Amino acid sequence: MNRRHFLSSAMLASLAPHAVAAESAADSFDFAYLTDIHVQPELGAAEGFRQCLDQVNLLKTPADFVLTGGDLIMDALDVGMDRVHQQFEIFDECMKRLSLPVHHTIGNHDVVGWSAKSVVQPDDHDYGKKLFADRYGRGRTYRSFDHKGWHFIILDSIGQHQETRDYQGWIDDAQLDWLKKDLAATGRSKPIIMVSHIPFYTTWHQVLGGPTAKLDGKAIVGNLHTFRKLFDDYNIQLVLSGHGHVVERIEIGKVTYLQGGAVCGMWWKGPVFGKPEGFGTITCRRDGTWHWQYRDYGWKARK
Asked: What's the pLDDT tens digit per position in 14-23?
């Protein structure tokens, strides 16, 4: 090998690791997952949420966007409309802190009046999901989008019990028809991430109440068994949820079901079973794999 050839080869060899690193970075992206925020005027919740958003903005590997997992506000189920509007206004004001695109999921506490204790009547203009849909969903509470080779499906898992008028975990028929069409249009190979506020699976009730503890209709999506087999025909990698304020990972077949903790912890009163207030980041790779990390953003509950 002559000297010129040797030097050229050496230079290429020295650059190769950097080229591989750059290519690897281009093949992946991160997003942040914030669930169970429960903004309210009390307990410094707005300050805590802003602190969380500051940490999202300062991530060492910047996120491409933010997904929320529902329960944006403390509660719209059992309170009057003045309180509902106050909480959403606080939430929106806090969100101005965020420098990223955001996609919102509806949670049970974001629904107006779906409670046996409701003080808002069904004939009220903002009863139900309308307020959330108009503010955050362009008139809808479920949708999908694509990002860098991945498909994201945001579900509305909040149903209403016809007798008690209370909420329950349920995916309605119209949404299931849409979901079937959306999956068919996505195809079998593209990696998919779903978000459902109420989890599809959870073990925490058994952890707390014993192995025979029974789940009620509010704890889990009650009609999952009617559509779960749809997942077998598609490349569904991850189903994100919230609702329980815990971090829980369940793997069934090729799908991981991940409950993402809570930005508010125990409703801004401290950690949940020792897990601090936090949010998640997920790295999605071009090869269809992903990596999750839960992040403590440093909030200390007010006394």
From this structure: 444 333 333 3
pLDDT digits (tens, 9 = 90+) for 93-106: 999 999 899 999 99
Return all residues near 271 (Cβ < 8 A) that are at least 6 apart: 265, 277
Q: Is the pLDDT of residue 10 over 70?
A: no
Rounded CA gap, 166 and 187, in Å? 36
Residues 245 and 199: their CA atoms lie apart, in Å, by 11
What is the rounded distance in angstroms from the CA atom of residue 94 to the CA atom of residue 98?
8
Give the percent of the chain with pLDDT over 70: 91
Report all structural domains of the chain as residue ranges with CATH numbers, in order of start: 29-296 (3.60.21.10)
pLDDT category at 168 given cuts 50, 70, 90 is very high
CA dist., res. 119 & res. 83, Å (int)? 11
DSSP string, the chain: --HHHHHHHHHHHHHHHHHHHHHHHHTEEEEEEE----B-SSTTHHHHHHHHHHHHHT-SS--S-EEE-S--BS-SSSS-HHHHHHHHHHHHHHHTT--S-EE----GGGSBS-STT-SS-TTSTTTBTHHHHHHHSTT-S-EEEEETTEEEEE---EEE-TTT--EEE---HHHHHHHHHHHHHH-SSS-EEEE-SS-S---HHHHHH-TTPPP-TTTS-TTGGGTGGGGGGTTEEEEEE-SS-SEEEEEETTEEEEEE--TTTTTTSS-BTTBPSEEEEEEEETTS-EEEEEEE-------
